[in-house]
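Practice problem: predict the structure.
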Amino acid sequence: QVQLVESGGGLVQTGGSLRLSCAASGRTFSNNAMGWFRQAPGKEREFVAGISWSGGRTYYGDSVKGRFTIFRDRAGNMVYLQMNSLKPEDTAVYYCNTDPPVKDYWGQGTQVTVSS
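Answer:
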């Protein structure tokens, strides 16, 4: 069974930092571009950051550019999201998936709450 399990969320104050982790099991994703996505209450899920299969190219949503960094391990089983200078509008459940995302790979996500 293929699973992507997110962790590392929590409650942080404005301006704080968190590092999210995504662990893959059931198969390797070393040949896939991977992404982080988020969904805030009452809003559609949105793209946050993506990374190519090699790790050589990264790309970000406009709202997180310059504050978030996506990276991955060489084995292809872990993807991370370093989030700095967090803002209340970053509050959401964060998910990882392939990019573009595959419906069957959505996990439970990890909650990030930024207090003002």
